[in-house]
Write the structure tokens for this entry.
Amino acid sequence: MSDNSDNSSPAPRLRIRIIFSDETRLGPGKADLLERIRDTGSIAAAGRTMSMSYKRAWSLVEEMNSAYRTPLVTSTRGGTKGGGARLTEAGEEILEHYRALEDITVDKGAVQIEQIRAMLKDGPGKK
Amino acid sequence: MSDNSDNSSPAPRLRIRIIFSDETRLGPGKADLLERIRDTGSIAAAGRTMSMSYKRAWSLVEEMNSAYRTPLVTSTRGGTKGGGARLTEAGEEILEHYRALEDITVDKGAVQIEQIRAMLKDGPGKK
């Protein structure tokens, strides 16, 4: 969608939430948390980069770990450095599938997104 | 995704939000509101079906009307029946594009959604 060189507005971003049931959902918050746990090796540090409290980050991890057949995150709690955490193979897979879904929507839905954007006052057609 | 006849859990639903800028977004709330205005002919009635206050529904309509080059909803305010409302051609088009984006994601992303779902404890693989 950056093929319009006249267009200085940034590309639209998507936030996708999959609702499996009333209790079981996967959206951008959990996906970003998984990604940042992978990158930082710490649930607390991952939460901080998202301005998320330690308690909230832990709560989301516990929610994910109990929703899936295999935990998505393993962690050692406590210790002087606050423990470490990493994604399990299942955690890596879930993150990968979710990011792929985002990429597919941006790619296959590009026409629809652009049609909506073109109707905005600050859309790409405005000079 | 209903090709697995052993599977009694309902099909996952998606909620997609397109973020054009910090101020300009289109997500399931506005799309549903447009759809219900189209179906009920009234902003107040549309809001009620979504448990949304009259004030909130009006505020979303005004936000949409000012974000797009052409208003999405026209309305006659007040009167004994509380006025009427309908979608403009632009409103119909935005709603159509948004629903098409949802359909494309469900269709083209079916594999990814199913891969995530299959890893859930209450996913389709569970007997």
In short: The interface with chain A takes residues 9-10, 12-21, 24, 26-27, 66-70, 90, 93-94, 97-98, 100-101, 104-105, 108-109, 112-113, 115-117, 119-123 of chain B (CB under 8 Å). Residues 1-7 of chain B have pLDDT under 50 and may be disordered. The longest strand of chain B covers residues 13-19. Residues 14 and 106 of chain B are 8 Å apart (CA to CA).
